[in-house]
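Internal tracking record. Fields below are filled automatically when a chain is submitted to the structure queue. Please do not edit lines marked as system-generated. If the sequence contains nonstandard residues, flag them in the REMARKS field before resubmitting.
Queue: standard
Priority: normal
Entity type: single polypeptide chain
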Amino acid sequence: MIINLSDDQDEVKIPKKAITLLKKGLQAVAEIHGLSEKTEVSVSLVSDEVIHVLNKNYRGIDRPTDVLSFALDEAEEPEETGGPEQHLLGDIIISAETAVRQGKEYGHGLNRELVYLGVHSLLHLLGYDHMNRDDKVKMRAEEEKALQKISLSQEDLDQDGEDADPVHFAATVINLASEKKEGTEDNVAASKAGKKEKAERSGKKAEKKDRKLRMRQNDVKRMDKTTQGLLKKALKARENAYVPFSRFKVGAALLTKEGDVFTGCNIENSSFGLTVCAERTAIFTAASNGVRPGEISVLLVVADTDDVTSPCGACRQVMAEFEIPIVIMANIKGDVRKISLEELLPFGFKAADFS
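SYSTEM-GENERATED OUTPUT FOLLOWS
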């Protein structure tokens, strides 16, 4: 499984061992559940203030919690012909500060608590829940399987006192000075200024994380299921792009009227004129499988651009040749824009014009 982990907070110093164990715990879940090596999950470590904002915006809960899960795998996807098997699972958000507190409260330390929260959240992304007693028992059993696999289950900890508190909490929490209540007036003033600056930084981080999640989660949810599915397929295809010169990866996915999906990526060449765009790769793959003009319903193209990605002139001409009525332009942030072929290529020339 591909784990994209980022530490987006300054309040807690996360030991390398904790990060290593967290990744091992997530991989253990992936192995137990037979997830593909190309399954992808994003993990972010944030502060209490950031997760507080996310809780309030997404769940209506006005307080910080230990972890949040945002699934991106909710669309019903048609069968795909061609393309990699990469699978975008979702986002895991963990409060590092809460992990420290809970690890200390439960007596098993930060390392184990961080792993547990990651495992717990990944199981949520896989459909497990704990709303009733039976579901809770099932989910707890899955958690133990993963923790046992990396020797971090409660049973292992009971047998090995050395792991009972793997992190010294006084050394873990970086910003202890601001919590002191004693000192001179200058120290008090400095402490207040430091807290204000810290709050402003946390607010900006929360806003940035919230904006990122809204683009990846809320915008995707507002899409119809066809667009969701095509975007995921195009993002997967984009990872296979061969772009040694431009480093600009593009992915495309099209849907036929029969319900088949064909994908493509851009492929560059040392003789630059031989470079083929993702849109044409997808269309030519479909054509080589018997798809003909008038049989494609929609094509989506995606790249890492600030605005949505616009096809080049050559690709527009090929789209016209295959009479693709709708084109969806997108970027990796989840912004999408639907446009008709006539808008994209006014006064286009196609096979029908020969007659």
